[in-house]
Description:
The complex is a heterodimer of chains A (275) and B (223). Chain A has 275 residues and is mainly alpha-helical. Chain A has eight helices and three strands. Among the domains of chain A are: 93 residues, no CATH class; 87 residues, Fusion Protein Consisting Of Minor Coat Protein, Glycine Rich Linker, Tola, And A His Tag, Chain: A, Domain 2, CATH 3.30.1150.10. The N terminus of chain A is likely disordered. Chain B is 84% helix and 0% strand.
Amino acid sequence: MVDPAPHFPRQFFRPEPRFSNLLLLSVGLHVGLAILFSGRLMPRPEVERPPIYYVDLSQLPVANPQAGRPDGGGVRQARPTPPKPPSTQPQPEPAPVKTAAPALKPQPTVSRTAPVKEAPAKTKETSAPAKGDAAADQKHLQQTMERLRRDQERAAVAERIAGLAGTGRSDAPLGMPDGTGNQTGVSQALWLQELLKSNWSLGRYQVLRRDLEAQVRVSYDAQGRLIDYRFLEDSGDATFDESVRRAILKSRELPFQPGQRLDIPVIFNLKDLME
Amino acid sequence: MEMITSVGLVVKLVLLLLVYFSVVSWAIIFYKVRVIRRATRDSEAFLQFFWNKRRFDAISQGLKHYPGSPLAVLFRDGYQELQRDQRTRNGDEGPVLTAELGKAENVARALRRATTQETARLEKYLTFLATTSSTAPFIGLFGTVWGLMSAFHSIGKTGSASLAVVAPGISEALVTTAIGLVAAIPAVMAYNHFLNKVNVLIGEMDNFCQEFLNIVDRMLRRP
């Protein structure tokens, strides 16, 4: 027998790469990719959700609110207890059963003089009018409750209107505690924000981010002239801050005279402004 | 991640199968990259060494420097066959070749055997890549169809066909198709790449066999 490789050293036989090691490498690669795409290492971009606005139509922002309470003093005092909706009212007990039961009691007396076979027929005759009376009572009861509910609602609306008009039981109409004007409404800051927004302008592509927000305290004197403004919190974007500054300077004169000094913090949110 | 965890059992099994295919495919890709790169590099170096030396005994001493070359394996087997014939005849251990006609056929058979072995070694695991590339999309599609069936079944139960009800189920069902494609695309690309490289190496082995046989034939015919 001949040696198959008599003259070749043992190290000639090539060392193959170990497949198990490469398998572990592949598992590591997949686990790494899974971790990467799960958002733990690489945070996913947050989806910008549209802002939600809650508008109180009874307390609209006005330029020069009258003196009063922001919640309309009389309304809260006279707030009626909300009437129970008809659907939640418990259904009255089936009256026909109760009323029909006494009606059936004379049946034995009838059965004494009459043949026994006629008893069922007479029972039907006496129970039918009893059921009809019960239905009429129930309908009457529902109508009464509905009328009471409407009366309560009507009274509540009347008191609300009285509160807004500054009459009635409340002597504090809808307005601001420091209000000097003659407009029914609150939130002078919101009105001012709308005014500044109308004077604000910025190109869509001048800023890269959309989550910019700056807070500025704006001061007007009693004649409605701008006397000072100060950034309480800047946005970090010089272009956006400059646009805010231009909007404030453009609103130097208020369209009315407030009669007192106004110091109002205004929030400039880029998303709101761009709408 | 919630999209994967919230799918049904069948879809989860499909996902596991696809992950298995992908993991093994990538392990094979890493393996073949190393094996074929080494084979190509060592073969080029061995050919240069072979034509520079021109003496079989000198070449055989330098084979250890080309462990990944299939051409070196061919030379080793052919040279062993030559030596075996001589030693069985006169018991001489030296590398001197005797001129005897008709012995080249033994060498040719040895070279053919070595070529077959090396081809099998180079094509090892490539069938798994081919299987992955052809079946993974269909397995993923099966998972999608199954997920859609489940989604439509639940839609029928809820009785609502709004986008909010339909979309999550379809989205979850499509995950398996996506992962099937993620497993199949690298596999088919790697398969084609490695097959091309292996074919080139097989061509080199054939050429080397012819050259080696010519040299042996000339040596054996020499008076």
